[in-house]
Amino acid sequence: MKDCIFCKIVAGEMPSTKLFENDHVLAFLDIYPGAQGHSLVIPKKHYVNLIDVPEKELQEVIKIVKKIGVAQVNGLGAHGFNVHQSNNKEAGQVVFHLHFHVLPRKENDGLGFRWNPQKANPEELKITQEKIIKALK
Ligand code: AMP
Ligand code: ZN
Predict the structure, then answer these.
(1) Is-catalytic flag, 99?
(2) What single-letter DSSP state applies at residue 120?
(3) Nearest one of 9, 112, 8, 26 to 68, comparing CA atoms
(4) Residue 78: helix, strand or coil by DSSP?
(5) CA pair distance 7, 66, nearest whole angstrom
(6) Protein residues whose CB sits closer than 6 Å to any atom of ligand 1
(7) Could you tell me the pLDDT band of residue 6, with boundaries at 50, 70 and 90?
(8) For a FRET experiment, which of 3, 59, 104, 131 has its CA 20 to 30 Å from that of 77?
(9) How far, rounded to the nearest angstrom, does the alpha carbon of residue 37 sit from its chain's CA centroid?
(10) Is 109 exposed, middle or buried (0-12, 13-18, 19+ CB in 10 A)?
């Protein structure tokens, strides 16, 4: 895909700090890391996000997400990791080539991934449940 930075990285037209590569997937370090070791895992083919990626391709990507997270634990001494992924501009997606962020975590590292939880209203839960279940069919 023309004008896609991640496609350029896959094609070797832009530099990256590579961690892992196979026929389907590339993993590299984020250039604006939220934590040391913050990694990105992408399919080599251009998909915008989870909405358009075929399941088979996604399986290949998610396998490497796990591999990178485990390597952060074993290689960086992380105590855990977060996987973060955004779909569409309104959800905070900035680069429109599917990618998973894998962020190593340590106790008291100050990284926050918090939303503002509100006690659910049982009626709203039911209405929302019905809408989503209908869309799943
Ligand atoms: P998102 O907000 O989920 O679309 O995240 C895009 C991520 O890509 C950000 O964390 C950027 O720091 C990262 N990023 C953008 N350009 C590059 C690049 N050339 N190499 C590595 N990471 C990049
Ligand atoms: Zn792309």
Answers:
(1) yes
(2) P
(3) 26
(4) coil
(5) 22
(6) 5, 14, 16, 30-32, 40, 86, 92-95
(7) very high
(8) 59
(9) 14
(10) middle
Read off the tokens for 64.
């490497």
Q: Token digits for 62?
A: 């998610």
Q: What pLDDT is attached to residue 115?
A: 85
CA 35 to chain centroid, in Å, comes to 15
49 vs 68: CA distance, rounded Å: 19
End-to-end CA distance of the chain: 32
| Structure tokens, 16 | 């990256």
Name 57's Cβ contacts closer than 8 Å, sequence gap at least 6.
24, 43, 45, 47
Please report, for residues 51, 61, 62, 107, 108, the alpha-carbon distance to residue 82 in angstroms, rounded to integers and kept in the order given: 21, 16, 13, 13, 14
Q: Rounded to an integer, what distance in angstroms lies between the CA atom of residue 78 and that of residue 9?
A: 27
Which position among 38, 97, 99, 101 bears the catalytic label? 99
pLDDT in tens, 86-124: 999 999 999 999 999 999 999 999 998 788 999 999 999
Q: Which two tokens stand for residue 34?
A: 């939220």
